[in-house]
Amino acid sequence: MTDPGSGRGAPGPRSAGRYLWWLVVSQRGRVAAGASYGSLWMVGLMLPPYVLSRAIDDGLATGRMPVLLGWVAVLLGVGAVNAWLAVMRHRTMTRIRMDATFRTVRAVMAQTVRLGAALPHKVTAGEVVTIGIGDVAVISQTLTMTGPGVGGVLAYAVVAVLLLSISPLLAVVVLLGVPLLAVLVGPLLGRLQGAQTRYRERQSGLAARLTDLVGGLRVLNGLGGKAVFAGHYRHASRALRDEGYRVGAVTSWVQALGLGLPTLFLAAVTWPAARMAAQGTLTAGELVAVYGYAAALVLPVSFFIEGGYDLTRGLVAARRVVRFLALEPDGARRVGEAGAARDVPGQRVPGRDDAPGQDAPGMASVLRDPVSGVEVVPGQLTALAAARPAESAAVVDRLGGFADSAATWGAVRLDEIAARQLRDRILVADNEADLFAGTLREVVCGRRDRTGEAIARAVRTALAEDIVRGLPDGLDAPVEAQGRNLSGGQRQRLRLVRALLADPEVLLAVEPTSAVDAHTEAGIATRLHAARAGRTTVVTSTSPLLLDRADRVYFLVDGTVAAVGSHRELLDGQSGYRRLVSRGEDEEADGAGPAGTAEVPVTEEGAR
């Protein structure tokens, strides 16, 4: 995978630690600057105690005012420089966090586009939401330790050296005290990582349940199942709350130790220093210096503990991101209309759009699926009829390059053709393809601008004129995400309009009329045949109205071709086919005749 923003290589599906390291090396210059500012700032915090001790011993104790004023001036200068270093450190670390955030977001978005139509089968919507909202922020916060974390180590070493010049005993207390703090906090960080992992898993599951609940609220109301799903959500929410309490319990101990242990450490250093001063071993200035060193060292010690806490949370979050980035499409390199890639203007899909491959056939050629035995003749309307819709949809997936197979286009295997060529010439129009929020014009035009004449032609073919007329602003009317402000039949016809406007060389449409009534279906069947005359079109359906308009019908049994011919030939010669479509013919007996060929005027009510 490649970082779409910077061109640097993104990590493969290896480990959470390597992902965090990649975020560091991807901005090594900025991280080096942040570490430098943090180190100078942290070391600078250790200088005021030394300056104070000299001011006390050399100026105040001896009564030499010029010397005292000189050291005071040095103290002010050190304070000013340290303030500037603090500002620069904070600005640099903010840039590091923002850069890490955007890199992770870009990587997740690129992977989402790469998975395309396979995304819903690989990961829940709640998982993606949790990564985008929570994990990204946690990961970026983890990189904060690259600044003050490095500075804390240097400050620790500087204090040890300074204390050695005052008292070896105090230096030993400092050198042993900080590792002891790490030993005390370490086990808690391990427990926190396990608790955080379980909490994140439950959180993503609950977010997925909420997404499903909101998306299907209208259906649940109709079925009377809203209360049942709400009860399940309450139960899962309580379980998440209990897991959150467990995380909070461990976190509270970590944070309490982060505040309390440095204070105890300060006391442990100050107590022997005070006794040494009382015994005359230390001067007043040296006592002030020791206290100042210990007090200043509280900050890097706190950073050590907080850094370990942030690293633990960052590893949990990074593990989820890496797991998401490791997902692969279902044996496919391509995304058709059902995938998001076709609707993201200017978005490249790294590793696939530019993948090398053979050229597609230069002229219209036969599409063959050896698994089922289906052969799609160029320039014809071909229909696939099966008792189980999934069987005919699987044939479309193979012919459209969505699934691994030996399907061929002319003399070339589909999986050997360059992905961009295949997508530009073969379009799979799923009857459940996503509808993105935007104006009606944007929804049906997708990534390309279309003329008003072309839009009107496609709208008429899909019998969607009533949708345009029924919305207050026509083509400029807003459409909600997934077309929630439209009926099922209206959404399906808009998907057909979008597919027709794409004007592909080969159109593979899955159940394009399953959500409309018989009158609307009859009109669409007639107009679709005329609109796609001379172009290759495949539809899956068991409706006699649509099947009768097909030039060739494949009758599939258990996923393979049982018979092929025209709709009327199969009615006469195949009892299984006759039983499959007879129910639809019975329903049409009063309207369009046995074959359902008449185009019936459509009312707005009927279209819904």
Task: Give a description of the structure.
With 608 residues, the protein is an alpha/beta fold. The chain has 22 helices and 12 strands. The strands form 3 sheets. It has a 6-stranded mixed sheet, with helices on both faces. A 4-stranded antiparallel sheet has the order 2-1-4-5, with helices on one face. The protein has a two-stranded antiparallel ribbon with strand order 7-8. α2 packs antiparallel against α4, α7 packs antiparallel against α8 and α15 crosses α17. The N terminus and C terminus are likely disordered.
Write the layout of secondary structure elements.
Blueprint lengths: L15 H10 L2 H18 L1 H14 L4 H51 L3 H4 L2 H18 L5 H17 L3 H48 L1 H7 L2 H53 L5 H42 L41 E3 L4 E3 L4 E6 L2 H11 L8 E2 L2 E2 L5 H7 E4 L8 E2 H6 L6 H10 L3 H6 L7 E2 L8 H15 L3 E5 L7 H14 L4 E5 L3 H4 L4 E6 L2 E6 L1 H7 L1 H14 L15 H4 L1
Parallel strand pairs: 3-10, 3-11, 6-9, 9-10
Antiparallel strand pairs: 1-2, 1-4, 4-5, 7-8, 11-12
Average residue pLDDT: 77
User: What's the arrangement of strands in the largest beta sheet?
Assistant: 6-9-10-3-11-12
What's the helix count? 22
- Report the portion of residues in β strands: 5-15%
* Shape type: elongated
List how many beta strands DSSP finds: 12
Unreliable stretches covering 5 or more consecutive residues: 1-9, 217-223, 332-355, 584-608
**What structural class do the secondary elements suggest?**
alpha/beta
Binned, the helix content reads 55-70%
Biggest sheet: strands, sense, closure?
A: 6 strands, mixed
What is Rg?
35 Å
Terminal-residue CA separation: 44 Å
